[in-house]
Specification:
This protein is α+β, with helices and mostly antiparallel strands. The chain is about 25% helix and about 30% strand.
């Protein structure tokens, strides 16, 4: 599990609009444009494993977790990757 050294709490990644995901649970962050990603989204919706964190905005990235949940985010995949690695967005 990814933790902060100073307090040993799980690292949380902001996926937009105040929604956070535990970094240790993230398997992949992908862009939503391809047909396989659209199928992945629909299959997750049918199984009840889809979490929409877009607040009604356009989906710009799809987060895949180790628990087989699919999280939709309105943030670009590159932005989430920067947050995941801890690099600044400037």
């Amino acid at each position: 599990m990814i933790t902060r050294k100073e307090d040993l709490s799980p690292v949380l990644i902001n996926v937009g609009f105040g929604n956070v995901v535990a970094a240790a649970k993230i398997v992949a962050v992908v862009t939503p444009g391809s047909a396989p990603m659209k199928r992945l989204r629909e299959e997750a919706r049918e199984r009840g494993k889809l979490i929409d964190a877009t607040e009604g905005r356009r989906t710009r990235s799809i987060i895949i977790t180790d628990s087989d949940h699919i999280i939709l985010s309105a943030l670009q995949a590159e932005t989430l990757a920067q947050r995941f690695t801890g690099k600044s967005e400037a």
